[in-house]
Design a protein that fits this description.
The protein is mainly β and 181 residues long. Helix content is 11%, strand content 48%. It contains 1 helix and 11 strands. Strand 1 and strand 2 form a beta hairpin. The longest helix has 20 residues. It is flat. The termini are far apart.
C-alpha cells in the first residue's frame, strides 16, 4: 500500500508542477484513464479488493488520482473491478466517469463511483450518492438514471434525477422476480 501512495504522491507533485509551468487549461477531451485495483489478504487467505485507484491522465502531462473504496470481495470469484465507462451521467453532453466498484450481492448487482466533468474547474468531481445506484441505466430523454438490483425473488428499482448539481432519488419500487422472463 505504501508503494501506491508513493506513486500517487509523486504523480500529484508532477501534475502540479507541470500545470504551474504554463497557462494551459485542460479540456475534457485531453484525458485518458487507467485504473489499478488494490488488494489485501483476508483472514481466510483470500485475495480481496481493498480500493481502486483511477489515474486521470492529461495528454499534456498532468496526472491526478481518484481513490474509490470497495467491498472486500474475492478477486478470484468476482470480476469487473476498476472498469471505467465514459458515460454522460449528468446529461450535459460531456462524457463523465463511471468506475466499477464490484458487486454487492450474489445476484451481481454492481455498484459504481461516478465523477462528472466540471467545465469551470476543468476536472472531474465526485457524485456523492452515485454509489447507491446499482447497475445504472440512463434515459437521456427523461434525464433519469434507473438502478436495478435483485435480492431473492424481489427486484428493486430506484430512479434518480439531477436537480441542479445534485443527484436526487425521486422514486423507488419493488416487484416480484419472474424467472421465466
Amino acid at each position: 500500500m505504501k508503494t501506491y501512495l508513493s506513486i500517487t504522491a509523486s504523480m500529484m507533485v508532477l501534475a502540479l508542477s507541470v500545470q504551474a509551468a504554463g497557462s494551459y487549461t485542460p479540456q475534457r477531451s485531453d484525458f485518458s484513464f487507467k485504473s489499478q485495483v488494490c488488494t489485501s489478504i483476508d483472514d481466510d487467505d483470500n485475495v480481496v479488493t481493498d480500493s481502486i485507484i483511477t489515474f486521470v491522465i492529461d495528454k499534456n502531462g498532468p496526472v491526478y488520482a481518484i481513490t474509490s473504496e470497495t467491498l472486500p470481495l474475492d478477486v478470484n470469484f468476482w470480476t469487473g473491478f476498476g472498469e471505467i465507462a465514459e458515460e454522460d451521467i449528468n446529461f450535459d453532453g460531456i462524457p463523465d466517469l463511471q468506475i466499477c466498484l464490484g458487486p454487492t450481492n450474489a445476484y451481481g448487482g454492481f455498484t459504481y463511483d461516478g465523477y462528472v466533468w466540471d467545465d469551470q474547474l476543468h476536472r472531474f468531481t465526485h457524485v456523492d450518492n452515485f454509489y447507491n445506484i446499482m447497475d445504472p441505466s440512463y434515459d437521456s430523454s427523461s434525464r433519469r438514471i434507473t438502478g436495478t438490483y435483485r435480492v431473492d425473488d424481489d427486484l428493486y428499482y430506484s430512479v434518480y434525477q439531477w436537480r441542479g448539481n445534485k443527484l436526487v432519488l425521486i422514486e423507488e419500487s419493488t416487484e416480484k422476480y419472474d424467472s421465466d422472463d
